[in-house]
Amino acid sequence: MRVRPGISVLWRGPTQVQVGTDPRWAVTLGQLSPPAARALAGLAGGADVRVIHARLRAEGVEPEEGRAVVALLRSVNLLTDRAPDPPASHDHMAWSLLDATGTATALLGRRSRAHVRVVGLGRLGTGIATALASAGVGTVQPVDDRSVTSADVGATGLRPDDVGARRDAVVRRLLHELAPHVRTGAGRPDLVVLVEQQVADPRRHLGLMADDVPHLAVVAREASVSVGPLVRPGDGPCLRCVELHRGDVDDGWPAVAAQLAGAVRPVVGGEETTLAATAVGFAAAQCLAAVDGRPATTDGASVELRLPDLMPVVTSWAPHPDCGCAGPVERGCAGPVEEERATAGALPAAGR
């Protein structure tokens, strides 16, 4: 039994210590004896229970109090009985804290066997692909035969000397530089990310629906990026449902959408530097939720990030009765419902 790796033990006062800093699991141990508080302060994450008892004994703490302290740590899940893992990455450390067993080995193993295809490799698609490879996804297949332009160059990975080269070739090189063991070849994907401009074209997703492949739409608009819904075929709304709902509330939308889907792709503000960087992180988190087998914020919803403040706006979607993608649906089912903007200054966490 040991303290979860990554957990800090901090002195709060003569009779108090705080274990952890994240509000989801941090706990204050109060009413300790001063020797017990001194013994626990500065205790390293990953420390074995025997080390805790030894430090308590060295400070002259009574055995009964020592056992009570260890029992409290165990009761709030800050101790794990898993054997120590080898030296960990930032990803391994963070996900170990979120795992009930205290280790991310199983989760990262699942990621290493996953195959994610990313279609569309401007600033957004390149950033999503590199984030997934860095997070441990075993196969990241970049798809885009267009050339890198000067507008693509930026913080998500494409460089000035890449201009003119084929996008998918450049991104494959980037992926291998960041994650040498990543695979980039073709195969049946577990998830497809379709990065588009102005509007998601539902026709591009018909084959994925037919093949029962989950997929995520990421759409760069004039000054915003929309992420989602994460389509899990047969369970929840698809992209055609979204378009049908939009047509229900705006008679002109189908004509507008058709023009946007068929237009030559211009440079759009949705790949502005800060917006692209924020959207990349959020979209990658949704992909990892799907790969890890967790619920995602974009299950049955799309999240729009808008300049200038980048605060997310969530719109919930239901299957449309005229689509048929999820079986019979009663007419009158809810259309788009825009929810309150997040107010905590952070993106909604995947699966929460």
Automatic annotation (TrEMBL):
Q: Which domain of life is it from?
A: Bacteria
Coiled-coil residue windows = none
Q: Do you know which Gene3D superfamilies this protein is assigned to? A: NAD(P)-binding Rossmann-like Domain
Cite the InterPro entries for this sequence: ThiF_NAD_FAD-bd (IPR000594), Ubiquitin-activating_enz (IPR035985)
UniProt xrefs under Pfam families? ThiF
Give the signal peptide, or none. none
Question: What are this entry's molecular-function GO terms?
Answer: ubiquitin-like modifier activating enzyme activity
Residue intervals of the THIF-type NAD/FAD binding fold domain: 112-184
| Entry protein name | Thiamine biosynthesis protein ThiF
Which organism does this sequence originate in? Cellulomonas carbonis T26
